[in-house]
Amino acid sequence: MNTRQHRLDQPLEPRRGLLPRPHYDPESFGRLSERIARFLGTARFLVYMTCFVLWWIAWNSLAPASLRFDEYPFIFLTLMLSLQASYAAPLILLAQNRQDDRDRVQYEQDRARGERSIADTDYLTREIAGLRLALNEVATRDFLRSELQQMLKELDGHRDGHREGHRDGRRPGGDYASRGL
């Protein structure tokens, strides 16, 4: 039984092995893998690889027997191509995963930007509706003119009535004077 108890609220001490663990920067390794994957997906790589394989087969088929290093079934060539493919596949997957992560971040930013746009549009729509309602309650120039003309007609009517009342023997000012106006 282990005499030393591990506490869950404290991190474990790092274990030291016989050999030090290699440390690498995942970001720089990811950028390198993307560059390699980008190159592997080009026509230039296909042309280079085709030329290399054709040169290999031609050399090991047509060169003098003493200079050949990989005879007919070309096992060493097959081994090299398999090794290249075994490294290329994970590098391509790593590059695709990084691109997926960037796409996901971009999608989330686009969605947040869209939500802000919708919220801003809703706010502006409510503000415009409020302004329209407020403008309906504001007196327009035509409304004010009609009201002033109506008041002038009423005042003219009172003035005419006041003149007739003065001729009748009423006090000047009529009802206005008694009201204190």
UniProtKB/TrEMBL annotation:
Keyword Cytoplasm applies: no
Region (Disordered): 1-21, 155-181
Keyword Transferase: no
Basic and acidic residues bias: start-end ranges: 155-173
Domain of life: Bacteria
TM spans (from-to): 45-62, 74-94
Keywords: Membrane, Transmembrane, Transmembrane helix
One matching Pfam family: DUF1003
InterPro entries, per the entry: DUF1003
UniProt name for this protein: Putative membrane protein
